[in-house]
Each structure stands twice: as C-alpha cells, then as structure tokens.
Automatic annotation (TrEMBL), chain A:
Membrane topology note: Multi-pass membrane protein
Protein name from the UniProt record: Monovalent cation/H+ antiporter subunit F
Transmembrane stretches, start-end: 5-22, 34-54, 60-82
Organism: Pseudomonas asuensis
Family statement drawn from the similarity comment of this UniProt entry: Belongs to the CPA3 antiporters (TC 2.A.63) subunit F family.
Record carries keyword Methyltransferase: no
Keyword presence, Ion transport: yes
InterPro entries, per the entry: MrpF/PhaF-like (IPR007208)
Main localization (coarse): membrane
Keywords: Antiport, Cell membrane, Ion transport, Membrane, Transmembrane, Transmembrane helix, Transport
UniProtKB/TrEMBL annotation, chain B:
Organism of provenance: Pseudomonas asuensis
Highest taxon listed in the record's lineage: Bacteria
Residues annotated as signal peptide: none
Pfam families: PhaG_MnhG_YufB (PF03334)
tRNA-binding in keyword set: no
Protein name: Monovalent cation/H+ antiporter subunit G
Annotated transmembrane regions: 6-28, 71-89
Keywords: Membrane, Transmembrane, Transmembrane helix
PANTHER family on file: ANTIPORTER SUBUNIT MNHG2-RELATED
InterPro entries named in the record: PhaG_MnhG_YufB
TrEMBL record, chain C:
PANTHER family: NA(+)/H(+) ANTIPORTER SUBUNIT E1, NA(+)_H(+) ANTIPORTER SUBUNIT E1
Places the protein is found: Cell membrane
Segments crossing the lipid bilayer: 12-38
Protein name: Monovalent cation/H+ antiporter subunit E
Family: Belongs to the CPA3 antiporters (TC 2.A.63) subunit E family.
Keyword set includes Magnesium: no
InterPro entries registered for this protein in UniProt: Cation_antiport_E (IPR002758)
Keywords recorded for this protein, A-Z: Cell membrane, Membrane, Transmembrane, Transmembrane helix
Protein's membrane topology: Multi-pass membrane protein
Signal in keyword set: no
C-alpha cells in the first residue's frame, strides 16, 4: 500500500511546490515573494521526508532539519531587510 | 508490516500532503497579502507535522529501535512559524501593502 | 543544585533536545547532554528571562492539549475557506486588548493566536496593551476577542503570574 501512496504524496507536494513557484514569479510585491520562498522551504522539507521514506533511508533527516533552520533564518533576514533596508543595525 | 499500521501511515501521509497542497493553493489564490499569510503559516506547518509523524512511525516499526528524532522538525516549525508570520506581517504593514476592499478595520500605521 | 543548574527547566529541555538529536540513549549521549545542559544556561544567564518559573503543570498540559485540538479543528475550517469561493471571505483587522504582563507569556499568547488558524497576530502596541490580529474570515469580532481572552489568556496568566 505504501508503494502506491508515497508517489501520490510526492506528486501532491510537487504540485504544491509548483503553485508556490507561480506566486514567487507573479509577486506582485517583495513580501509576497518572501512568503512564497518560505512556503517553498516548508514544501522542500515535506518532499525530503517523503523521499527518505521512499528510499527507506533515515539519512535525510539531517538535511530536512538544516533546511528548516536555514529557511527560518533567511525568512527573518529578508523580512528585516525590506523593513529596515539593513540587516545589522 | 501490520496492515492497520500501514493504513495509519498512509492516512497520515495523505493528510499531510493534502494540507501542504492546501497551503500552497491558499498562497496562490487568496486576494491580498494578509490573507495569503494564513495558508503557508498554518496549513503547511500542520502538513509537514503530519508527514513527519508518519515517517517517525515507519522508521520506529521498520528498523529496530525507537526513532523519535524526527519530532525535532515539527517542534522547530511550530516555534518558528508564528515568528516568521509576525515579522512578515510587520514588514507588509510598514510597506503599506493594500488590503482587499472588503477588509474591516485598518492596519496600524508604522 | 541551584548553583549547578541555575535554570533547571532550560537545562532539562536542552538535555531532551540533545538526546532527540543524536537519537540514542547511550551513556555517552547522556553525559554530553548533561554537559550541554550545564554549560549553555551558564553561558547565557543574562539572555534568559529573569522570572520564567512556570507553575501549575496541570494547567500547562491542559492548555497544550487545547491548543493542539483547536489547531487541528480550525485548520480544517481554513482549508474549507481556502478552497471555497474567495468572495465569501470576510477578512478583518481586530484589536485585542491584553492584560497579561509577563513577556514570555505574551510571546506565547501571540504564537498561539498565530497557530490557531483563522487568525495571525500582526503587531503588538508599544505599551504592550493591545495586539493587532488579522482574521481570515470573521463575522463577529467581539466573540473572537472573548474566546482569545478566556481560552488562551486566562490559563497563560495562571501559568505566568506577574
């Protein structure tokens, strides 16, 4: 059953990535683009976890955790940059 | 594998991917920035949480030994999602982004 | 004991996080975790909230369960709103007056408002007396304010008295 369900989930998540990418291209504002990048990060985590399940490997956990950490930091830094025009005051 | 357990993992995976997709759909089709903020910060976070719990169940039962370290990902996401939502909302208010005409109440002038 | 571990709660959380990260319960992991739980609070004593001494363990557990349940239920409602026709949405900015004074409690309240779907906490006023909340679709602002204050703020004020 899992061999059928995992590809379905992978394709659902890929569609989610595609939709977030359309928002990233369309904008219309910088804040929307940052939000789209944040969503892409979280979708990437879901994809990596699913891929780890598909390959039956526990090694992908670290990659997902690091993407979560970097995604949060980059979102905060970008938002701060467009608010203040500077990152470190 | 126990069929009940496999079914549970499948349901969790489908629910998780479904919520992830709903979050992205919300990001694409809602009318203004402040409403778009709702999709990714919540639906997507819950989706990843559910997917990761499915993965945790799978690795705990398939490989020997308890595998709880996947729990760190949803924990971290649940702590950070409100923070990034708030900081993005603040930056949007500071940039005076337009809200849809139907919105009641006004954002504060920063 | 209190000199060795100035913040027992922070130390405990750090040990648990370390054991989760290395995903093992061997003696070496315990020793390393206890070392980190001893060293990190010692290095960042000044950054930590002065009076973060949560009481009422039972209230905390109940609040946690309530937030989880609300997040699940209302996530489904938000999914229905997102997939339904967008012209039925009634977005609104709502000001919620808050009475809680403890900083950690206030942070937690804003996070809970953001996680419970339908609402995102947007901004805190300068004097920490009001939170601006954006709701995706809200018919009745008074009811929202009332439910935030009774469901989440009341237990938080019990957990973090000033």
């Amino acid at each position: 059953m899992l061999t059928i369900v995992i590809p379905i989930c992978l394709s659902l998540c890929s569609v989610a990535v595609l939709l977030a990418f359309i928002r990233l291209v369309r904008g219309p504002h910088q804040s929307d683009r940052i939000l789209a990048l944040d969503t892409l990060n979280i979708n990437a985590i879901a994809l990596i976890v699913l891929f780890g399940l598909w390959l039956d490997s526990n090694l992908f956990f670290e990659a997902a955790l690091i993407i979560a950490l970097m995604g949060f930091i980059s979102t905060v830094v970008l938002a701060k940059f467009i608010t203040r025009g500077d990152i470190i005051e | 594998m126990n069929p009940w357990l496999e079914g549970l993992i499948c349901v969790l995976l489908l629910v998780g991917s479904g919520f992830t997709l709903v979050g992205s759909i919300g990001l694409l089709r809602l009318p203004d920035f402040f409403t778009r903020l709702h999709g990714p910060t919540k639906a997507t976070t819950l989706g990843v949480g559910s997917t990761v719990i499915a993965s945790m169940l799978y690795f705990t039962t398939q490989h020997d030994g308890l595998s709880l370290h996947e729990l760190l990902i949803p924990l971290f996401l649940f702590i950070t999602a409100p923070v990034s939502a708030q900081i993005l909302c603040k930056s949007a208010m500071q940039q005076r982004l337009k809200t849809t005409p139907k919105t009641r109440g006004k954002p504060w002038q920063l | 004991m209190s000199r060795l571990f100035p913040h027992p709660l922070l130390s405990g959380v750090l040990v648990i996080l370390w054991l989760l990260l290395v995903n093992s319960l061997s003696l070496g992991s315990w020793i390393m975790g206890l070392f980190l739980g001893w060293g990190i609070p010692r290095l960042c004593t000044r950054m930590w909230f002065e009076n973060a001494r949560p009481r009422h363990g039972w209230t905390t557990v109940r609040l946690l369960l309530r937030v989880t349940k609300d997040a699940l239920i209302a996530n489904i409602q938000v999914a229905a709103l997102v997939l339904g026709p967008t012209r039925r949405l009634k977005p609104a900015f709502i000001e919620v007056p808050v009475d809680i004074r403890d900083e950690l409690g206030l942070t937690l309240l804003m996070s809970i408002i953001s996680l419970t779907p339908g609402t995102v906490s947007a901004e805190l006023s300068e004097d920490h007396s009001r939170i601006l909340v954006h709701a995706l679709s809200e018919e009745n602002p008074e009811q929202l304010i009332h439910s935030i204050k009774t469901r989440y703020e009341q237990p938080l004020m019990e957990i973090f008295p000033c």
